[in-house]
Design a protein that fits this description.
Elements (H helix, E strand, L loop, with lengths): L1 E8 L10 E2 L2 E4 L3 E2 L12 H6 L9 E5 L1 H8 L13 E4 L11 E4 L3 E8 L5 H5 L3 H5 E3 L5 E3 L3 E7 L1 E3 L4 E5 L12
Parallel strand pairs: 5-6
Antiparallel strand pairs: 1-2, 1-6, 1-13, 3-4, 3-12, 5-11, 7-8, 7-13, 8-11, 9-10
Length: 180
Amino acid sequence: MSGTVTAVSSNEVYSFTKPNRESITLLAGLGVEGDVHAGQTVKHRSRIAKDPTVPNLRQVHLIHEELFDEVGAAGFTVRPGELGENITTRGIDLLGLPTGTLLHLGDEAVVEITGLRNPCYQIDNFQKGLLKRVVGRDADGGLVRKAGIMGVVRTGGVVRPGDAISVELPAEPHRPLAPV
């Protein structure tokens, strides 16, 4: 399984969206250099309020660009970085990967998938009604979160649009993604 990085984004201040960059540098054990969410412990405001000493399992946020196509068919316009992701991908079913999958990005960087992004009300503040498009139900009525995945940086490196992504699955049995 392989895909491509279509955009990279970061922001040094808390903001829902993140501006696109020519490249980002991933730092092992920390996240995206200069990004407000980089660090060994939690950096998302809601998580800091609960316990600021918890390990940061949300160092890097990845979204599949195919989601933008899906919500576009329903009348929404979403571009890379606008949902707060650091890396926008194409060609990989990110949501279908198991916990612990390693994503090799470009020549050096490796991100280990820790779980799903749990979409919040800020998505509706960005575009009213969009939250219902990125959260749905499966055939059994279970909640389906489509707003991307989270990971931690295992090996640092520079990541750019156009970089190849290769997938290394963990040993079985595979654990499905859950919100982190």
